[in-house]
Amino acid sequence: MKIVIFGLTISSSWGNGHATLWRGLCKHLIRAGHHVTFFERDVPYYAGARDLHELAGGRLVLFSRWQDIKTTARAELRDADAAIVTSYCPDGIDATDLVLDQDHALRVFYDLDTPVTLQALRAGEPVSYIGPRGLGEFDLVLSFTGGDRVRREFAERLGAADVVPFYGHVDPDVHRPGEPQPHYRAALSYLGTYAADRQDTLERLFVEAARRRPELRFLIGGAQYPQDFPWSNNIYFVRHLPPAEHPAFYASSRLTLNVTRRAMAEMGWCPSGRLFEAAACGVPILSDRWEGLEHFFIPGEEILLAEDTDDVLRAVDLNDAELHSLARRARERVLAQHSSAQRATELIALFSQTRSRPSPMRATLEA
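User: That's the sequence. What structure does it adopt?
Assistant: Structure tokens below.
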């Protein structure tokens, strides 16, 4: 099967959660014998932190302007079996028009930012990657978030006819137990791009815990942190941590914290890719609460939950045996249910199922 993707980025993991997910998924699609072409606009902030330069076994097309590759993209679609447009694709509306106006490839929209999309729509704000045609002409809409509310709102607000949850995942070839490194040593770590909408939670579950335990070392890894972030003397910082460094980062922590974006937490049923990556690396995880989390991990057995600073300090004080047991169960769960290889298999199955169903839009175009 040939799959053409118009996405945000696969070439740079800096400041976004898309690249690592696409790398794992594309790698395992290619390993399974499928061909993948990924179109990505070449923007300065990703070019300056590019940590992937070619798509092994597939094709990565970097371009400066949509008009420069429109003809190439149309040619790629002529023999494609499926074409995917993603959320936050800088040329999402143009790519949508190109994909919807052809009658060969399966038309797919993948929203990797579902809660953000719905939050904007509810507020009456424009969504830069979804144009006036909405999602009604797509054969399949994939959502990073599950739950009946997503299907209902995508249908009502965007006309989507077939919405299926397609959750995050992890590539265990990249995210796996690593060797601890002294410069990443921490009693509690946190890996994530700065986001204002999770700052309150981060201050409650991380910053305040560091203040109350000045004898312990705390570590943050991520991009875009402002100068006025409330640092303390025992909070250390790594500005950019490419995926290759994640195993050492996590291996050097007794415990790592997951903080969910506000829109994702309010929506529920939306595990971040970081959650699966940390579990695959074998580090015990402490997370904020959100609806549906127990569908992915068993609280108290595979993951710890925290609502306030006291919960965090109790977790930090657990003995090594308790933490190691927790981490082992979480890793087993992730490898069994949430690997990139499994998602690749699921994606091809979804494509086949969608192809086998009558599509009014395809029938109209083919008539």
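Confidence is low (pLDDT under 50) at residues 362-367.
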